[in-house]
Amino acid sequence: MHVLLIDGLNLIRRVHAGVPGEGEAQHADAVLNACVASLRRALRRHQPSHALCALDGEGHSWRRDLFSDYKKLRKPMPEDLRVLLPRVIERFAELGVVSIEIPAFEADDVIASVADRLAKVGSAVTILSTDKSFCQLLGPKIRVHDHFADREHDRAWVKQRFGVEPEQLVDLFALAGDSSLGIRGIYSIGVHTAVKLLTDYGNLEGVLDAGDTIGGRLGAKVRSGAADARLAARLVVLRRDVSLDTNLKAFRFDPNLVGNE
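Above: the chain sequence. Below: its structure as tokens.
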């Protein structure tokens, strides 16, 4: 079994941003066709036995409830795309890819939960997304593919890009924060310093436990920012306990639906 998990809005919004705007109706049709073409390409590239597209659930996510500034600066979905989205989802379904959303949960948590459960029973999983957050899930059965660059975000990529192992990514962003999500981490500790701390002390709790022994201004930052770092870790880590309340059989993919167009 090979399951393709598609980060829906990551795919759709990137396609939308890359399609030149003309007349309103013409642009909508162009975006719709480009989304369908992009999905066809992914299905042919990965040849899954099952596929699903995850979307963010309606309303504030649990992360926003926990931290009001979460994604505060993130641009909202363009109105024309919001209107078009149901048509995109419908066309995806015609290709045999069902879209799902769980209230109060982001697509990331849905994908992480499905991927984790499948990997534990030995199924192969490909996550289609450019989002670095998914790299914390990397393992023998879980891979992350950047559809637009046609590149694997594998362990070597994570190490080269961030300077840590995938298992340390949550701790890295707990210390350094993630500006794209509005998450602070420890004030004025950047990625370079966070990597050094994790190299020296292994993980987030190791760094925080060593706060009293780290000298100078850095030690003071670690001690004063411990609560912020722990909050950031809760926000960055992907949930793996989201229930779909459905059987995986509902997401079986029929390659004949893609055709040869």
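The chain has two domains: 2-158+238-254, 167-236.
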